[in-house]
Amino acid sequence: MAEKIQGLLAKLPAVDVLLKRSAMEELVERYPRGAVKAAIQETLSSIRQEVLQEKREVLPEMSELEQMISQQLVEHQFSLRRVINGTGTVIHTNLGRSSLSPRVKQQVGEISFHYSNLEFDLAAGTRGSRYSHLVEIIKELTGAEDVLVVNNNAAAVLLVLSTLIKEQEVLVSRGELVEIGGAFRIPDVVTSSGGKIVEVGTTNKTHLKDYQQALTEETGGILKVHTSNYRIVGFTESVALAELAELAHQAELPLINDLGSGLFIDMRQFGLPYEPTVKEALEQGCDVVTFSGDKLLGGPQAGIIVGKKAYIEKMKQNQLLRALRIDKMTLSALEATFELYLDPAQAVKEIPVLHMLSLDEEACRQKAESLAADLKEVAGELSIIVEKDASAVGGGSYPEHLLPTYVVALQSDTFSAEELQQKLRESRVPIISRIKNQANYLDVRTIDEEEFPLIVAAVKALAE
Ligand SMILES: *Cc1c(COP(=O)(O)O)cnc(C)c1O
């Protein structure tokens, strides 16, 4: 017996021999060489195991072996993978926040896979600045004097405070001492940038005189923070931007506004409450405004700083900027995204975040009916029902505001809701559902029609 096993093992081809075969060379053109090699090793090792455990008495033919290796590669998964967002939360931070417009793809490819004029002035033929590329387009969209773009909005706030406040005091309303998910706390950011926070007013009410009384020789600026992920409701009062700007300017201090999401269009068209756009915040007298690239803007992760030239000039001299600098792929994705905003109607149509928010109840119902019809054909014992529900904007935007939507609810007699949810997550393209009333809800607001076949394939495999 042992002799037979030894004989079989000795006949297994070597990795290097396999790698030289034309079928493997074809695979190397499609996949990284390392991945092909790993697939060969894994396939050979599983055959070896089978032989040793006497589960296999003949070796596969060469063509069969090549087929097995190819299959192994197809099943190879990267750690960071695409998923289908069935949660209905449009800006889902755990799921990568906003997905980019298809129009951005080509531009990012063009810049990433070639050399570019990232830090090169094409007109002069001399060294240029990576920060120059977005200046004109953002100036046009916001009316700002100058622009600076960094890694994310947390970095933007840090850079602004460490440049303009330094070791001085900054006034912040007690109603705006925000914590954003993942340990970004305004009081801590101020402290870590070297400044000293001076809390003014109370949690629910802050008046202009609270700011006035807190002004001292030590004050370096006034900070206004968007209460992104919570609302103080009831007996409340805050100071209008224009009034705060007047106070800051009388004292020759900057008014800094961390807007969080940063809007470029009027969200009332989606049935959401009015909030000022970046342009309006500047018009009301803010000297520096910061916002995220991947929240309601619908672009890549980035932090965008707009405002007075003199202040932004100082930020460009800050050593910290080098550590917070933005990558060329992000820059190109951001430029292509901003370009869509030059025509707001096109932005709503083509930027996924805005398009998803723009879907009304009837559009969602039709999408859900269409997905449900496809699923019913393959669902077996699974029950498929279309139900009315509500989606969230997410990303700390409009926390108390839900959008009417329709979901496809999946339920099984065999599996519990939690088991079904896990099985959906284990699909080739993982599907992330939301459990409600013992069913798995797939909210079609955040699912593209092009993803329907993937869901159908997953449910078909599940039903079998
Ligand atoms: C989201 C948010 C931030 C952090 O922005 P990131 O781009 O995630 O770093 C900071 N401030 C406010 C008010 C926010 O809403």
From TrEMBL:
Modified residues (N6-(pyridoxal phosphate)lysine): 295
GO molecular function terms attached to this record: L-seryl-tRNA(Sec) selenium transferase activity
Top enzyme class: transferase
Requisite cofactors: pyridoxal 5'-phosphate
Domain L-seryl-tRNA selenium transferase N-terminal: 9-48
UniProt KW keywords: Cytoplasm, Protein biosynthesis, Pyridoxal phosphate, Selenium, Transferase
UniProt xrefs under InterPro entries: PyrdxlP-dep_Trfase, PyrdxlP-dep_Trfase_major, SelA-like, SelA_trans, SelA_trans_N_dom
Pathway membership: Aminoacyl-tRNA biosynthesis; selenocysteinyl-tRNA(Sec) biosynthesis; selenocysteinyl-tRNA(Sec) from L-seryl-tRNA(Sec) (bacterial route): step 1/1
Compartment(s): Cytoplasm
EC number: 2.9.1.1
Listed Pfam families: Se-cys_synth_N, SelA
Signal sequence interval, chain numbering: none
Principal subcellular localization: cytoplasm
Domain of life where this protein originates: Bacteria
Keyword Cytoplasm set for record: yes
The reaction(s) this protein catalyses: L-seryl-tRNA(Sec) + selenophosphate + H(+) = L-selenocysteinyl-tRNA(Sec) + phosphate
Similarity section: Belongs to the SelA family.
Function recorded in the entry: Converts seryl-tRNA(Sec) to selenocysteinyl-tRNA(Sec) required for selenoprotein biosynthesis.
HAMAP family: SelA
Name of the protein this chain belongs to: L-seryl-tRNA(Sec) selenium transferase
